Fold each of these.
Amino acid sequence: MNIEKMNEQISRLEGQKAEYDERMDKKIIAMKKEKEAMISAQMQHIFRKHKLDPDVLIKLRFASKEQLQMVLDFINSEIEEPAKPEPKETSDDKKEKENQNHAKELNT
């Protein structure tokens, strides 16, 4: 393989990496927003369930560290963490593996 082809391949792979990174950043941001929305909804549910109002939050501002820790422990016990799905191999991962295998074949 000559140097020009290698440079072209490197440029192409760097472009693919940049696109992949951008897509993953968007997915991560979307998942974080979804997580925050779920936590907010669960917090509202907890407040309705236990008939708490915003005045309680103002009172918590003057609470001791121990009292705040008790409240945090209670909230954390009430919030349900979504189950983490096992990561599936995406088509991008498959393409990357194929590219690596192809590069190994070219080197041999």
Amino acid sequence: MMKFTAITAQSQSAFTILEPGKHVFFLHNYSGDLTIDIATPDAEIFIYGIYIGRNTDHFTLHTTQHHRTGKNISDLLIKGVFFDDSKFLYEGLIQIDPGAQQSNAYQKNQNLLLSPNAFVDSRPFLEIKANDVRCTHGSTTGRLNQDQLMYLDMRGLSAADAEKVLVEGFVHDVFAKMQEIGCETKSIEEDLFALFLQK
């Protein structure tokens, strides 16, 4: 069984998972809280997000992956691309209760800054009260690789086209992971990549 939920400003922000199977949550430019309480074994929770900030966009996101029982998985990947004066503030918490042995929880936030004025503050946290678990978290924020830009320039791409190629490659990781677990992503990809063409 797979359940897909798109998180928007109008949707609920707290979910309790009571059924085994795959539960997929997708965020695009969502500001707010997202809390996933995992209260059953054999549940697989996937949280994917893509943020595209332009002009003075300002996004704030708080996520909680709360493992109340064990023998389950949560996996979060959020990627952001920020232009102009946009800002992204992120706090992510993985919380493992004492009885949630054999939980696997992963959290990764990666961001690209495409303007000297763009700003990201990303803070991952772990709160682990069980000893038989596997948890990782990480956050990176940087700029486009100049060697890759130079290589594409030598291949005849304009600076704008080279930037577009690298940004699409950066974001595509999210779609690749979604496809691996059986999600259809074509319409989402088309909508989001169209946003990269905006200036």
Amino acid sequence: MTVTRRAEAADLAAVNAMHGRCSPQTLFSRYQTGRSALREHEWARLIRQGVSWVTSPVHRPDMVVATTHLLHDGADGRGELALLVEDGWQDVGLGTALARWALSQAPFFGVRRAVVVTTRDNPRMTAICASLGAHVEPAESLGGTQDGAEDDGNVVHFVWVVPEEEATPRNVGGTCGHAPA
């Protein structure tokens, strides 16, 4: 079982400890570049630019196992959804539950279109996006190329249009198992 709460500046050490427990592939899938930690100013920007949450095991509130970011880019109600789930907590439904939660909260933060930027070879994020009904949008409408990809064609943009009726508090369904301690 896990608990998710709003992220704070003081969470940086626990977030970086989580980065240290993630494989290089997991980190590359999240950032599309080599990265092993966040700097203080990067974390400050992430928690200031939108809304960010940290997820911890119920009995280990000092240990972060996932981060979720809904970053408002200020353009026409568009925001970017980004997740990082520690390797040992993947494949149990946590990423899907966190994405579902973030999307349910999007209207409260002025986000009407949520975008995930990932690579075509990121099966977990691709599956999350597909299971929650995202569609691939041509990147040219987001400032990229015509086919929904940038650069070598490996980057893809998944988009959700958040309906106005979503802007009411509600219980978001979803379950996830728990990883070994």
